[in-house]
Design goal:
Largest sheet: 6 strands, antiparallel
Distance between the termini: 19 Å
Structural class: mainly beta
Shape: elongated
Length: 351
């Protein structure tokens, strides 16, 4: 919310602590105080900015200090004031933890006190969203066509033709299932995540390598609070599958770079077919009337009956990798799946 350059160091003060660890009414409160230092860039910052210091305890976090804890007391209040009226650099932030929220008391483990009916989702112990999510890792196996083997050799026959149908092999994908409670589940928003891919690095995976399957949601009630138990399934594409490319020539010998494009969930097709684009002129220099139009590829005066590799420009591939003696394929890259930010999926779900 505020630039990191506005903030200096933060220290918890040994003085100013207080609390009510026991009350016959069942409620408990605790206070902790922190010294927050701001830099010259943030000298005009107010209490909102000061309380947004990234190293302060977050609202709704448990009361946990270096010596004690109470996991039923949540951080419910911040108060910030300058330590000295003539000193803008140092602020004292008082954090209050309480088992009371919104005037309701929930001191017992696991929810409301006896006789209380959950009605207000803003209360931390009523709110189903504050229950821990369920996290599961497993693997999915699929039969997928392979463009090349582990030695970067394309799957072609001895005549340098691709196999029809293509070779398929089992491939394992890591799968992450996140099941959480959501009060504000929106099916229309969830629709936009179905089959989308990550638009930025997510759990150490580059963009395009994590795909969200269509979410599943079950309507439930806690008292009269309606919420949904939502499951998000994320599939992780395996890393390290690269497509070769020609990056230049040394004389007539092509330079092959084996890390041109790493396969992810977006589709990649090997350029091949029965047709080629008509040349601009014939061997005598006479223009073709159907220049640029697809025409059958012929061998010995007859149209071919099996697809051959194309060069990305509508003509049969001719460049051979000198290390393998095989034609170098050209790959057509497409964007089929929309990109979405997946950060919210590991915090509060789709919002």
């Amino acid at each position: 919310m505020f630039p990191p350059s506005w903030y200096g160091k933060i220290d918890e003060l040994p003085e100013g602590r207080s609390g009510t660890p026991f009350s016959i009414t069942g409620g408990r409160t605790y206070t902790r105080q922190f010294m927050v230092t701001v830099t010259g860039d943030g000298k005009l910052m107010g209490p909102i900015g000061v309380c947004s210091h990234p190293l302060l305890p977050r609202p709704w976090s448990f009361y946990v200090s270096n010596t004690e804890y109470d996991t039923l007391a949540l951080l419910s209040d911040y108060k910030a004031e300058q330590r000295y009226k003539d000193d803008w650099q140092q602020w004292v932030v008082t954090a209050t933890y309480s088992t009371f929220t919104d005037g309701n008391q929930f001191a017992g483990p696991g929810g409301a006190a006896p006789g209380d009916l959950p009605t207000n989702p803003s209360n931390a112990y009523n709110n189903p969203e504050y229950e821990y999510p369920k996290i599961e890792f497993n693997y999915d196996e699929q039969q997928k066509p392979a463009l090349m083997d582990l030695d970067k050799k394309p799957y072609q026959n001895s005549a340098m033709q691709p196999f029809t149908p293509p070779m398929t092999f089992p491939r394992a994908y890591r799968v992450l299932n996140i099941t959480r409670n959501e009060i504000g589940f929106n099916p229309a928003v969830a629709d936009s995540y179905a089959y989308s891919v990550n638009d930025a690095t997510f759990l150490d995976m580059p963009p395009g390598f994590v795909q969200c399957m269509p979410p599943r949601a079950e309507q439930l009630f806690k008292g009269n609070i309606r919420y949904y138990r939502v499951t998000y399934t994320l599939k992780f594409h395996p890393r390290g599958i690269w497509l070769p490319a020609i990056t230049g020539y040394i004389g007539d010998i092509p330079v092959i770079e084996d890390q041109d494009h790493e396969l992810n969930w977006q589709p990649v097709l090997q350029d091949q077919g029965y047709m080629r684009l008509q040349d601009k002129v014939d061997s005598n220099g006479k223009p073709f009337s159907n220049f640029g139009q697809p025409i059958p590829i012929e061998r010995n005066g007859r149209a071919i009956t099996q697809q051959i590799l194309l060069d990305g420009g509508g003509q049969p591939a001719t460049v051979v990798d000198p290390s393998t003696g095989m034609l170098i394929p050209f790959y057509i890259k497409r964007r089929q799946f929309p990109a979405k930010n997946f950060t919210s999926l590991v915090t509060r779900g789709v919002t």
